[in-house]
Design brief:
Blueprint: E1 3-6, E2 11-14, E3 18-19, H1 32-45, E4 49-51, H2 60-68, E5 77-82, E6 84-87, E7 90-94, H3 98-112, E8 117-122, H4 131-144, E9 147-153, H5 157-166, E10 171-175, H6 187-194, E11 197-201, H7 224-227, H8 234-254, H9 258-267, H10 282-289, H11 298-307, H12 318-321
Parallel strand pairs: 3-4, 4-5, 5-8, 8-9, 9-10, 10-11
Antiparallel strand pairs: 1-2, 6-7
Helix pairs in contact: 1-2, 1-10, 4-5, 5-6, 8-9
Amino acid sequence: MKKRKLGTQGLEVSELGLGCMSMSWAYGTPNDEESIATIHRALDLGVTFFDTAEAYGPYKNEELLGRALKGRRDKAVIATKFGFHIENGKMAGPDSRPQHVREVVEASLRRLGTDRIDLLYQHRVDPKVPIEEVVGVMADFVKQGKVRFLGLSEAGEKSIRRAHAVHPISALQSEYSLWERNLEERIIPALRELGIGLVPFAPLGRGFLTGVARRAEEYPEGDFRKTNDPRLQGENFDRNMAAAESVRQFAKRKGATPGQIALAWLLHRGEDIVPIPGTKRRKYLEENAGAAEVRLTGADMAELDHALKNVAGPRYTAASAAMVDR
């Protein structure tokens, strides 16, 4: 698999990463044995970029990734995130107070079983703490050699610019896909102006673009999709399944899967974009990796752009949307 650079400070990763969240949290029942096998298979396929966070589990996902990479740490680029107050096993609002950041980053290092975090993200901007203070603490870890590069997640343009003025930001992780285009008007131009890479999460449209999405009520209790994705609910679901069908038909013509087309579209949007499709199964990992071989023409890109112009429903509930920095 080819490599791509995120930012201008020297961070190099595989052109597709692996989102590890679903291995421990939010999506179905965990299967550590299969998840670890999937991480090992990713390394064998040339995938070097692994994404986790203290909030996933909480904590369990970092521990799982640490176990999986034992003895193979130098082959991997680990990205993790901080930024929430976690109470009784649940996220209870943002918390990026400097002392808290110092504590949780040290804890992440222990759970990951490593002496350095390759890419450290603030998971969500904390409106109570100036981002200059947060990035200052993050930069201290860079000086100590415990963190190599810095990132933000779901940050708005003003926060990105303020953060980057304190210490170079290498990557922004935010939702972006054929399915979700909110970054195109302001965020992506700002990233390219500043020389910051983009790491899209949910690049497969939360299952719609692969044809595996189900109605919200069909998911079990505890699954994120049951209550937190308006696009899976009611009339939104029906309209969105019809829209996604156009991508499935396109994929048939190309001899690829819909998921591969969705990932290929992102890869063709720029060399500074590295999607992190999430899976806990080797079967889907291998399918996703095949997207790197799909070639799309300018006409193909235009057809796909037009096919999914109107997605029904917001991407988050009001509570979740309130934590996205504008």
